[in-house]
Specification:
single chain; mainly alpha; 434 Repressor (Amino-terminal Domain)
Length: 187
């Protein structure tokens, strides 16, 4: 049985509802709780595992009640460490990021009929999906350096006045400053 997302995407209704900040934020919280719970259940079922068998793969078959809680949309108290461990267990990527509401709505509309069970890296690699993507758009060799420069800004680059803070998306902006082993500001 394949489990898919279902959504009501009446544009006017969504926009009217999203005007209310309380609704917006409750919607996001509910979407996270429901999405994680249903997706975990779908991935477990795709592997043809019982909750007890998944708990055993997680390290202890007596953790079946914990797996049951994770699959309950009312739970919603996942730690990042737990989500990372589950991603590792299912051999899938975990992506956690802040997004604008426009992207959330667009993603929801696009994924309304997408299966919730995510293929593992091994499955995607076996089917040639990973290599096809890398051939189409190869990763740049210096990606990690650019990410570090762009997102982990050394503290000596931070302006003293808050109103002077600007986002610099051009990596060359950071090249004008001397690079040194510094404490990085990650907050």
């Amino acid at each position: 049985m394949e489990i898919t997302r279902s959504s009501n995407t009446n544009s006017d209704s969504i926009l009217n509802d999203f005007v209310d900040p309380k609704y917006r934020h409750t919607f996001v919280e509910s979407n996270i709780r429901n999405g994680l719970a249903f997706q975990l259940r779908a991935m477990r079922l795709a592997k043809k595992l019982s909750q007890e068998q998944l708990a055993a793969e997680f390290g202890n078959p007596k953790l079946q009640p914990v797996i049951s809680r994770y699959e309950n949309p009312d739970y919603g108290k996942y730690s990042l460490t737990t989500l990372q461990a589950l991603a590792r267990l299912f051999d899938v990527a975990l992506v956690v990021r802040f997004e604008p509401f426009s992207k959330l709505i667009k993603t929801m509309k696009q994924s309304a009929k997408v299966p919730l069970a995510v293929p593992s890296f091994v499955q995607e690699n076996r089917e040639g999906i990973i290599s096809a993507i890398l051939e189409h758009e190869p990763l740049r060799a210096n990606t990690s350096k650019l990410v570090e420069q762009k997102f982990y800004r050394p503290t000596f680059l931070l302006p003293k006045k808050l109103e002077a803070v600007t986002e610099h998306t051009d990596p060359q902006y950071y090249e004008q400053y001397p690079q040194q082993e510094a404490t990085y500001a990650t907050q």
